[in-house]
Specification:
By secondary structure, the chain is of the alpha+beta class. The protein contains 11 helices and 12 strands. It folds into 2 domains: about 1-140, Phosphorylase Kinase, domain 1, CATH 3.30.200; about 145-240, Orthogonal Bundle (Transferase(Phosphotransferase), domain 1). About 45% of the residues lie in helices and about 25% in strands. β4 (about 60-70) and β5 (about 70-80) form a beta hairpin. The longest helix has 28 residues, at about 225-250.
Amino acid sequence: MLRIRLNKFLRDHGEFIEHDGWRIHILDTQVKDSSNWSHDIANIMRQVKNPTELLKQDHRSFVAIFEHDNLRYVIKKFTLQNTWFWFRWTSVVFESLGEIAYRNSILMLEDGLLIPEPIMLCQKVSNLTISHSWMIYKYLDGEELGVAEMRDIVAFVKSMHHRGWVHRDPHPANFLRTTSTIATIDPIRARKSQSMYLRACDVLHMMRDNPIAGNLYNDDRLNFWLKIAQTKHNFLNIYRIVKYWLRSAFGYNARKTELK
């Protein structure tokens, strides 16, 4: 049922194309604006596999820039989707990592929040599971923010809360200063929610980067929820220490996982 609803959402926002074992969804704005996306998939996929500039590569994701029709685009490959058993097999029912980021990007743009504009979702399906999940979006030129720009970050997160969204990972590296305003570049953990607890978690994350974030946000309604969030995160820190110790004891290192 969950996948049926997702497929309906995607069909309402674009069209699917099958190409060389890939199931590709092209956003409706691109279908209308440029027929090249549907007629030149083979060329696009070649460029995607051979990007011009690498931005990030770790055990979680691969992010790089490629060019098409003299425009710059970003390809994000969700490495965990094809290397972690959990993400692959739960995709039979639930969304893949690429689908989460793609759907959130579409909905956040519709709600007036500035993020890189999604273009295309490319996925490989094997035995009903999604083994590869890639997302393509327009390159957004801007300068990465730091802790000194916490006032701008808090203002953006607060605007998300007013629109019914929580960020859930509001670290400075996830924000850009464009020529006109602030944008967030990683929507995969964002969620549509009015939860005061989740809003408090956003504020707590920002306070860890810069303690003045709580004063900048300035909402007395969150005081109780901030205490709850702090208590939960203290327990999570203990859990992470124990998990790290167990992984070290058994010689497990997730960062050795390679993109296939």
